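Sharing a chain and its predicted structure for anyone who wants a worked example. Both blocks are below, sequence first, tokens second.
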Amino acid sequence: MTAPLKRSHTQDETGTAVFEAQRPRLRRIAYRMLGSLSEADDIVQDAWLRWRQVDPATVQSAAAFLSQVVTRLCLDVMKSARARRETYVGSWLPEPLVEEETAPDRDDLTLTLMLALERLSPLERAAFLLHDVFGVALDDVATTLKREPAAVRQLAVRARQHVQDARPRFPVAPEEGSRIAEAFFTATRSGDIATLRTLLSETVVLRADGGGKVNAFPNPIIGLDHVLRLFEGLTRKLGAQHDERFRTLWIDGLPGYLSFERDGVLQTTALAIEDGRITAIYITRNPDKLQRVRIEPLH
């Protein structure tokens, strides 16, 4: 049995500084792999414990080494995560990543693309994220996945083909996204179906994740007329309200908002927008997925 590595105080300080510099990127890799911030934090903590057993001076590239550790840990977790989703109640959405639109470490993945990644195999997902999103060299990805570079290249190609339709053609400007999000919120609260009709595309899809913990639409609502009837029915049942306890946010690369709804449930709503119309509505109500969302202040 190998004895634990004994490190000097200087090595400890150096190792800690190196890891902390990589932590935001490692957390983002883990989140993009798993769709769960809580699981991503667990992965990063596990990577930290493993890093503590390494002499930083012996590592040629801390970024490559730690990315490799985190990715392999994620691949192990994905096996059980996929099994859990098979029994998940209703629609599954990633835990919302709420951030400022101008956050310096933002990548170009949106919630829509995150859902498209769910259709990939774990190795395809890892190859696509590491190479295409996080800029890891192909040879380093091959080492991480324990595959030949040619095989990894094919994994990445297949992944791109599967998710290309989920990439937005024209990213929405922050001001436009906030304007549409606020207009959508106001129209749904007041029961203004005429305005909603102007905001939604003909092919709009609504998905709501309650996880069996709170009320949520169990199946996707597809098409303009069905979504309008849904909100019209909610207005008849709950009545129109002009309570504006909400805050516009950037959620997984999409404009949206945080709100307390008429049943008192906190939720995030993210909106995919193309050509000025909302093409997808992603509502997260599962309280387990909102524990990291700051509630205050809401307007």
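Comments welcome. Residues 189 and 243 are 8 Å apart (CA to CA).
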